[in-house]
Every structure is written in structure tokens, then in C-alpha cells.
Sequence to fold (535 residues):
Amino acid sequence: MADSSVSPSPAVRPPHRIHMHAADNVAIVANDGGLKAGAAFADGLVLVDNVPQGHKVSLTDLAEGDAVVRYNVVIGYALKPIARGSWVHERLLQMPAARELEGLPIATVKPPAQPPLEGYTFEGYRNLDGSVGTRNILAITQTVQCVAGVVDFAVQRIKAELLPKYPNVDDVVGLSHSYGCGVAIDAPDAIIPIRTLRNISLNPNFGGEVMVISLGCEKLQPERLLPPGSIALVDERNVADIGETANAKLDVVCLQDDAHVGFMSMIDSIMRQAEEHLERLNARRRETVPASELVVGVQCGGSDAFSGVTANPAVGFCTDLLVRAGATVMFSEVTEVRDGIDQLTSRATTPEVADAMIREMAWYDAYLDRGRVDRSANTTPGNKKGGLSNIVEKAMGSIVKSGSAPISGVVSPGEKAKQKGLLYAATPASDFICGTLQLAAGMNLHVFTTGRGTPYGLAEVPVIKVATRSDLARRWHDLMDVNAGRIADGDATIEDVGWEMFRLMLDVASGRKKTWAEQWKLHNALVLFNPAPVT
Ligand code: CA
Fold:
């Protein structure tokens, strides 16, 4: 297990604060448990208030209306005078307006080309379509929620009775979801949940073995979910296996089929089909592949003020390593990058990529507007308790996960990533929806940073969890895989933790190490993004 990074109990440290940029007029208190009024820093700054860990302290006297600057970005305006040494909490700040989507800098920043990182490999499962899996899983696709209970029942039987015969198969997973019927399936936005389900069933970790359970009367019919062209990968395999040139048929078990008499007939039918797929999956072997075959989805959840100081910058450093190694890295979470859109459009490789980012942001602005909220609806009570005053501050700490590489592509919600490099996958910030959409995009490894702590995990891909603070890493020693809190403690650099993550990714991708979420089988449900109406 990857818990070697957890520090022993902390010694009592002298008052310590973290200042992100020379232009910032606030810093955050780093000490576990925060600091009391009267605490004096080495440079003579004395706290006027008690300041909790991760919260901001003013480095200057601020007048009403003065800009409060962190990450060299205005995160708010003082609502009243704030004396040097005071606790700068959310109630003292007015949030700035969102950046307009007009007049943005387009592809203006040309980051210096970084030398390629060569020679790094992992052991993966090569698929017929060229993609590579990090796990070897039988996934059972479902057209509609109605069949979920039946599939669950069958999965339990498959795991108990069949899986022991196929030791090279890691798991059997029912891809249950809440879509498929009772929805306005012809609404334009219905394409998002439909293509999400389609692309998840083609995730590299499932080896191209698509089997579908359908009810029969549902709106999302199997042919609509997986039209012939979409499963070329499966067709090829079936053609090779059965020596036919005609289009192979989609493997569907339909519960309302006249042939089924009684529940056990359905279960037997699912198990019979499953066994065919298990046999083929079991014959697969890991092979050495370059690190460029990693498709890493990064996201954060349960963020605190340390997210943007420790874990996310370390992920950003690791993102740069992955991009240099030729891999694919997706960063997401629209509302958490919206306030930094100018940083992103300027890093786009081409005007087309910048335009695609602006298009996704505009679509999301309109989506939020329809619900009469804006991007500020993102922050949670826990974020605020952790020191993040508003979405602007949260976003600046979130964007750093993207590192410094040029942004070479944009993936719309539910679409599959079609290129390598650093990609912006437009997804909501909701942990489950973001993870679900990154799965659809073809993610084969997930990296998740957390400050407040979440036990998040997915059945479909390994999830590496990174703690922002040593206190969390100590308390959740058997849930957190990496402790980036050592950066705030002064025990490790951003580069150290970034490299540690990179090496851990290769180990986890190879199956040499399991993440804690895998160890405990912590599996969150797939949650589809359905912006279309239900009926
Ligand atoms: Ca999230």
C-alpha cells in the first residue's frame, strides 16, 4: 500500500504561513489546528484574531473596497477595513464578477517546450482499438435503470460461481445508472447521457467485451445506445472469433423476451453470456507499454485552502511529467475553471482549442442561468470551513492541477478523448458526474485530491487519492494514497510529491499496487449528466 508517505505525529511547529505569489496581500495559516490571536511569525507579523488552519491572514492594512489578492488574482474586495494580522474570512469579502467570455487572450502563451520524458513504461492490457487497460474487468452495460436489480443479482452470482474460474479477470461490474426511460430522449441535450453510457461501455478497462442487459420496452433501445458503427471494436473481435465478415450482432439479453419464463431464466441467460466474455477476458495478458498509454483524469473534491497549495500543484507537476511522457491528461470541472478562463484560453495550442473552451463555458453559463444560479453555487460549507472564501479562490487552486503544458484539445461531456496531451474535458465539478464523464472519455487511471477528506472510489478504474494536509493523511491513513501535506510541512517539495505520484501511477496502472479505494472496494455510483428534461 502507498502509505509510506504519511508523516509521524507532528512536532509543534512555530507559526507558519504560506504565501503563493509576491503580489498577494494575504497568506494562509499552515499550522495544524490553526493559530491563536497574538501568535507571532518570524518576520514580526502578529495575529489580531484566532485564524483556523488553511484560512487567510491579511499581510497589510486593507481599506474598504481594496482588492484582496491571492495567486496574483483578485479573489474579492474588502467589505470593511481589515487590519494587518486579521483573519480574512468569506464574510469580509465581496466576490468579483465572472470574467466575460469576450476579448479573451487566445493562444497567446507559448510555454517553453519541455524535453520528452522517455523510457517510462507500465504493464497494461492492449485492446484491439489500440487503447490500453489498467484493469481487466467484465462490465455489464444496462439500457435502463429497471434492470439494475436483476443485474446486481446476476453479478453476485457471477462473482461467486464464475469469477473464481477466470483468475485473470479482476472484477465484474454492473454499469447501473438512472437513465433510459422516463426521459425526453429526443431533446437535443439527451445526447450527453446517451453517449456517456455508450462510451463508458467502451472504456479501455473492459477489453471491448460489451454485453448489454435491456428490459425491452424502454426508450433507450440497445441499438440506440450502441449503434453498429460504435462497436467496431467488438465487431472485429467477433468476426475474428467466428470467422464471419458480416456485422456481428450486439450481445443483448432482453428481460421481456418471450423465451424467459421466470426470474431464474433471466439470470441463467445473463450468466451464460457473461461466461463467454469472461473466457476471452481471461485469456488476455498484461504487456509492457509506454507511459504514453496512460489516460489520466484528474479532479478534486472536498477541497480546502491547501488544495491549491500542496496537492493540486503536485498534481500539476505530475501532469507536466505525464504530458512530457506522451500521455493523455484530462482536467475538468467547469465551475472551477470558469474564473480562470483567460489563463486557459491563453494556453490553448490553437485558436480552435480556445474557441472550444469558450463554447463549453458559454454553454455552462447558460445552463446555470436556466437554474437561476451562477458559478458561485459551487462552493460548499466544507470548502468555506477549510478556508476557501469563494469560487474565485477555489478555482485558482483547482486550475493548477493542469500544470503548465499547452492545452491541446477539448472533450465535450460524454465524448471520448481522441488525442493525447493535456485536454480540457468539460464536466460539472460534481465528483461523481466528473468521474463518470472522465470514464466515458476513456480514462484508465483517476487521480483525486481532497482536503476535507472523501472516501471516493470507482469500480471501473483505480482511483489514487491525494491528501492536501498531513493531518488528514494521518487520520485517514488507510484511505489516502499520497500525502501532499508534507509540502506545507516543509518535508517535501512539490516536485518530490509530483514524482512520487508519477511513479505510483505506473505501479497502480500495472496492477503491482492497489489503491486504498480498491483495497476496500469503495465504489461510488455512476452519475450521468443529464441536462435534458425528464418526463
Ligand atoms: Ca470534483
